[in-house]
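Here is an idea for our session: we take a single protein and study its fold together. Once you have written the record down, we can walk along the chain together.
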Amino acid sequence: MRQRTAGAPSNEGAMERLQGIAVSPGVAIGEALILDNEGFRIPRRFVGRDAVGEELARLNRAIEAATAEVDRNRGRVAKELGDEVAAIFSAHLQMLNDRRLRQELEEMIRTRHYSPEYSVSRALGKYAKVFQSLDGEYMAERANDIFDIQKRLLRHLLGTARQELAHVTSPVLVLAHNLTPSETANLNPQFVMGLVTEVGGPGSHTAIVAEGLGIPAVVGVGNFLTDVSGGETVIIDGDQGLIFLHPDEETLARYRHEVEEQRSLAVKLETLRDLPAETTDGVRITMLGNIEFPAEVQQCDERGADGIGLYRTEFLYLGRDDDPPEEAHFAAYSEVAREMHGKPVVMRTLDLGADKMRTLPDPEDERNPFLGLRSIRLALKNRDMFRVQLRAILRASAHGQIKLMFPLISTMLELRQAKMVLADAMEDLEEAGIPFDRNMPVGMMVEVPSAVIMMDRFAEEADFFSIGTNDLIQYCLAVDRSNKDVASLYTAADPAVIRLIDMAVQTAKRFDRPISMCGQMCGNPLYTMLLLGIGLRTLSVTPSAIPEVKRVCRSVSIEQCERVADQVRGLETARDVKTFLKEELSKVFPEFPV
């Protein structure tokens, strides 16, 4: 959804208000850094007067190279498929060498001193937007043709000079079509202050990373990148799921005030660091942190975490052309174990799909990756790789209080097979005389309905449980959590999801098995009273969420929370649940928006 405010004072046009899906709270104001679906970042860069001649020559060389490339493609296609199909490339050649386009690009470089990259991005993006606004499949195809030419020119202009996200050296808001796991792994939290994507939904990988970085984020906005250029000022409202392009002064002033309020609240929350997450009636809640990199241990420590409740290990595998060796695993795991100084660290084994692993062949028929070869299934199918990781975790257990956790367990057979591979790894280390914790606790994620239904049997095999709500929600409600078209159906507030969580907690209690929650749901203060009322006493959240969740815990009693849970059990829709929880939280914190 977008709204345009006519007449707003802006160099680039009227203010636009875009609606997306809020996945990480907070407000950010800053300079846009554009990353389209080919990975190009085109900031608004100016060239010096004395460099205009060379920049024009560089543009001409790019056009000539792109023309030769298209002509080769046309010749090959004409030979193999005929002139009729090759006509597509003939149209591309006409556009590439259109006299008016060439004049417009040269004028932008000469008079406005824009770089050739920015000129190409701006001019062709404008043309594509016009075609996108027209009805009909033919017009949509013409927009795609223009984007194809734009990307071809940018490839030749940027060459090997393309910078990576990890090398950003000034504060920016990243606006992207989407981010791959390896790209999100390269985000520099020191400079990436906010994140927006055209696609995706709550619980998507991008959402999880943004929350982990503690930056405002909105996903599933729809096509908007052609409406904004690098370097322009953008506002991200991660509380309401709003994006403002070309904001006017009134809107900027209002959101600058919100940013200041955020900073004031953050200062107040810092005072809770060394205080326990203890309810008003004296019940201690264990607050753990979720991390992806060893460096995040410091963030947990700074916010007073009682340990690590989820160490996502899969980022060791991303962006590599080979499997990480055992020593790379061991170095990362042992570093975290040592730096937690005896506090517990729950390490989850590989939780990726085969489509994300460069070293493995792509599945032949992976039309629905979330129901396919991923997580523990992938590990059990590639046992040599799995054994390497397990050996490293076992070795690291000699350096701290480590617990091992298997993800996406859906059957008893999977859990038993995983434990057999672990037993083999233990035997290997014993024979080699390598120290490890022989009594290391071994648990499992509760992420699929079958795990909840069979939990009485799993309790005989698992030392502990951790509820992963991100997957549990999508499998319970049959909603692809990365699909913006069904994103409205993906919600932790759905009564069916809450019933599953309730069942899991009560079963774990009945069999005297520790149970925690490590999904995004427990990092949202909206659900804290409900989860405490259901019976959870251990919550694992992103480091940035620890202070706010602790604040709620220290402001309510268990009796109060149990009343909230009883009321929620009687509600029938997610909307009713959310409305009720907002009302209850606003009674504790009047500043909370209802």
Summary: The mean pLDDT is 86.
